[in-house]
Each structure stands twice: as C-alpha cells, then as structure tokens.
Design goal:
By secondary structure, the chain is α/β, with parallel strands linked by helices. The protein has two domains: 203 residues, FAD/NAD(P)-binding domain; 108 residues, FAD/NAD(P)-binding domain. The protein has eight helices and 17 strands. The strands form four sheets. Strands 1, 2, 3, 4, 5, 6, 16 and 17 form an eight-stranded mixed β-sheet that branches. Strands 8-14-9-10-11 form a five-stranded parallel β-sheet, covered by helices on one side. A two-stranded antiparallel ribbon has the order 7-15. Strand 1, helix 1 and strand 2 form a beta-alpha-beta unit.
Length: 366
C-alpha cells in the first residue's frame, strides 16, 4: 500500500494543473494516469484536430505554450506540451495505471488500480468527462456491412468505405469530421443544430480580439456565482455547445446536408425524422459525445439524476474528495484549457484548508 497525502486521478491538463499547485506547496502527492504516455488522450484523437483556443492561451500555470506564434496548436503539439510540462516541474506522474476503484477506509481513501493500492487523505478526480464513448442503442441494428466509428476512434477518411458517410451529431467534433470527410466522400449530417460563433476564429481579428471576449465571458461571467451565468450554463447544458471553428455555410458549400435527427433503423439502414430511409449510407461516424461513467467510485456522492453532487468541485459529503475538469464545474470554461488553471488553484486552496500540514513523503506499507 503506497501512502500519500493526495492522489490525483488523471494526468491531463486538469490533473497536471492541480499537481503544479500542490508541488508549489511542497505537498505529498501522486498523479495516476491510464495512458502509457502523458498526453496520449490528445494524441489518440483524429489526425487533423487543432485546439479551439489560440496558443497564447494554451499554457498551464507556470509555463507558457512554447511557441505562441502558432495560431492554434495541433493535438500532438499540445500533447507534447503536457509531457514537457510534467517533466519541467518534476511532477510525480505514474502512467499505465488505470484506476478501477475508490472507497473510504476510516478517515482515508483507498484507490485501487488492479493489484496496486494507494492510500490518501485526499483524492482529486481529474479524469474528465470525455472518456466513455456514447453510442445510441439503435446502432446495433445497422447492417453489418456499414462501417461504424465513434468520433474517439476516427482518425482520418482512409478508415471509411467508398460511398456516403452519415455523421451523427452536429457539435464541434461532428462538424470538424464532416467537413474533412466531405472532401473524399458524399457526406450527410444528422442532428439538431445548436448555433455557432460567427467569427472565423483562424483570422487575426478573431484570434486576438474576439477570443479574448469569449474567454472573459466563459471564465469570469458565465459562472455559477451569478444569475446570468447560471442561466447560460442551463441553456448550454440543454442545447449543447456552439460550433467554434466550422461554420454551417462551410458545410453547405462542401455539399454536406443536414437531414435532421436519426430516429430509427429499418432493414439495417438509418431512418431520419422526416421518415426518409438513407439507403446509400455505407459509413456512420457517431459524434454524439461521451458518458460519464463513475461507477467505480464506491462512495455515496450521487444525486437523483446520477450526477455527482459537489460545490465548485468540492464534495462536501465526503471530506477530502474533489473533482477537476467537469463540464460547468464552476464556469462554462471549466472543462477546457483556458478554465482549468483557475479551478485548480481553487481546489488546492480548499484542500490546503482541510489539510494544513502535509504528511511525510510517500511510504510503502508491507
């Protein structure tokens, strides 16, 4: 049994940011990450993905993004940055450690990862909400000849068969992927549009002016602290995110048509809400998001809706338990790069109030 004051579960931007602040306070902690390499959760996304925030806002606390002249870093550039960040601050990250249980034992927590056990006074859950791909149950009825991919498994158009591609989901991943595959395949989108940011974020004005306004609103205005923020969070939770990079007119110009929601499968083919059967579809890319599976938490922290109950990431019913990187944890920007630094400072501040004196360096029990 390895013992620490704090165990952080998840070595992405949220977990590393918490680790930075704990390191500054000389606290005893370890970061556990399921990936074999820091940043792999970014490397494993589709090849052409670029961040939606410009390089000068993609740094974590204490270290700027290394080349701020880059307009928008690629997912691999950001993954390499995370790896360099952990190395620069000598953060104790254990890779290849997949946590499968957290339970309370007296006044401490026991974190299990296979046959490895970690004991801690505090646990920070920073594994994010985007880990378990969600695919609707009707997907099982599609003809076996149709190639099906979730957006988390999509890399590039070479994975697809010849013929029409149906992209289900009209969020940012769906729009990005649809625009890419439309260059090589006839492409149809399915879903209810949620709106978009009118400005071209890749332009100089948007990057250096509009983005500052969007960030200010997402970090400082649309928060749970005020009525305007609470209303904005409720609307976005119900309707979904606005499209950031891709515009509807770009999709239209590329020949991508939105046919409404996919509601059924008939004779192995998708059926949309107009009643039309899409007979010529040979590929389906599911861009319908992820589900938050926290069933491995053996703790009574969930509300009637199944979501964890917390106040700005602090689980008051289980002292010493914290969340980082949840959607709308405190603000609209809580689960994206520009928002994690502020939330990390807050969580470590609350943790320090509860545990004013650090325990000795990690020990291993026989």
């Amino acid at each position: 049994m390895e013992r620490y004051e704090t165990v952080i579960i998840g070595g992405g931007q949220a977990g590393l940011s918490v680790g930075y602040h704990l390191q500054k306070r000389n606290r005893s902690f370890v970061i556990l990450d399921a990936s074999e390499r820091i940043g792999d959760s970014w490397r494993q996304r589709w090849d052409s993905l670029k961040l939606y925030s410009p390089a000068f806002r993609d740094g974590l606390p204490g270290m700027r993004f290394p080349d701020e002249r880059i307009a928008y870093p690629t997912k691999d550039e950001f993954a390499d940055y995370l790896e360099a960040y952990a190395r620069r601050f000598a953060l104790p990250v254990r890779t290849g450690v997949r946590v499968d249980g957290v339970r309370r034992d007296g006044d401490r927590y026991v974190v299990s990862a296979g046959d490895r056990m970690f004991e801690a006074t505090n646990v920070v859950l920073a594994s994010g909400a985007h880990r378990d791909p969600r695919v609707p149950s009707l997907a099982a009825g599609l003809d076996p000849s149709i190639v099906q991919l979730h957006s988390s498994a999509y890399r590039n158009p070479s994975q697809l068969r010849e013929g029409r591609v149906l992209v289900v989901g009209v969020g940012n991943s769906g729009a990005d992927i649809a625009l890419e595959v439309a260059r090589t395949h006839p492409t149809t989108m399915s879903g209810s549009p949620t709106g978009h940011i009118p400005a071209d974020i890749d332009g100089w004005i948007a990057r250096n002016v509009v983005f500052h306004l969007i960030r200010f609103l997402g970090v400082h205005v649309f928060t749970r602290r005020n009525p305007i923020g609470r209303k904005a969070i409720a609307n976005m939770s119900a309707k979904g995110d606005l499209l950031v990079r891709v515009k509807p007119k770009w999709l239209e110009a590329a020949g991508v048509v939105n046919v409404g929601r996919t509601i059924d499968i008939r004779d192995g083919k998708p059926v949309v809400e107009s009643g039309e059967v899409l007979d010529d579809v040979t590929n389906v890319v599911w861009c319908v998001g992820f589900r938050q599976d926290l069933s491995w938490l053996d703790l009574p922290i969930f509300g009637e809706d199944g979501a964890p109950v917390h106040e700005r990431g602090v689980v008051t019913s289980e002292p010493g338990l914290y969340f980082m990187g949840l959607p709308f944890q405190f603000a609209v920007a809580s689960d994206v790069i520009p928002g994690v630094s502020r939330d990390a400072r807050w969580i470590v501040k609350q943790l320090g109030r509860r545990s004013p004196a650090s325990v000795p360096a990690a020990t291993v029990a026989a």
